[in-house]
Amino acid sequence: MATGPPPNALAARRPSRSRCTASCGPTRWRAARRARPTDRPRPMPPDPWADGLYLRSVQYKTDANLSARQSIYAFQHPTVDLPARVLDLAAPAASDTVADIGCGNGRYLADLARRGFTGRVLGADLSLGMLRAARDHLNTATAADATCSSSIALISADAAALPLREDAADVTLASHMLYHVPEPAAALSELRRVTRPGGRVLIVLNGAAHLRQLRAALAAARGQDPATLAERVTLDDGEALARSFFPRVTRHDFPAELRIPDPAPIADYIRSMPGTHDHADPDALIEAALSALPVTPTGHRTITTHAGCLIAEFD
Ligand SMILES: C[S@@+](CC[C@H](N)C(=O)[O-])C[C@H]1O[C@@H](n2cnc3c(N)ncnc32)[C@H](O)[C@@H]1O
Hints:
alpha/beta, Rossmann fold, 10 helices, binds S-adenosylmethionine, S-adenosyl-L-methionine
């Protein structure tokens, strides 16, 4: 794999509100400015899922929380390999430029690398900790495949103000991240701006029923209305929003369920959520949520999953 600075086609052309603090290939990670100490307890923001400071410095300071949530899909029936399904739909040509906005710990980037993708790749994320995790995943993926020859850049950037020029990408991904942007329409506008006409924007979100049993159990344990734990932007919301920005939107739904024989992965999932650590007794909260989840005669806890991918196109 060739590594180096961001490919010219992707370089920023205008000053941006977002900082491009790190830009490198997976084997040439430039040290970012030292972050403020973040171990001091902070008050929980009113909407932690859309609070940039909380997301960068607590929830996604490392990929530990995201990894705990990703692990639970090992119990999915039928298994939905979401990065694989989405990249199959994206079908980038060999020389395309793919931008993954809110790339997180790099599951899509690593999958592209494992496929031997030869075009240019950009991963952008608000969190430096997630970019480090993405670099590590990319290093693992490319070490396993010496033939990988794509050029990869990782940058710290806000989806609502991307430091990229117009038409920079042929394929732009925004997977499970729109609900983190305070004004999702601003991100949609940026996703369209940085994608060339004739290219594709792929937006991945969850349906309203996704993890509904888990949300109901956690809400009951917290004494809250389950609606307070609903995602800020569901797949339906994303589809309506995408249709307001793009003339053509096609939707692909991937319904499935988790069948979990052991409470530990569910406990880890709940522990990764905002609010659990701040609870007076996190272990008691988790125990209460687990006991509110029905157990099947075969000893499983069954939880609905529903992710979907929107493909948005314009000329
Ligand atoms: C749930 S993770 C999804 C990661 C990855 N796209 C995936 O599907 O596996 C959400 C990611 O979006 C990032 N994020 C949140 N708000 C963002 C923003 N305004 N701009 C860019 N990235 C953002 C977070 O730091 C986190 O890495």
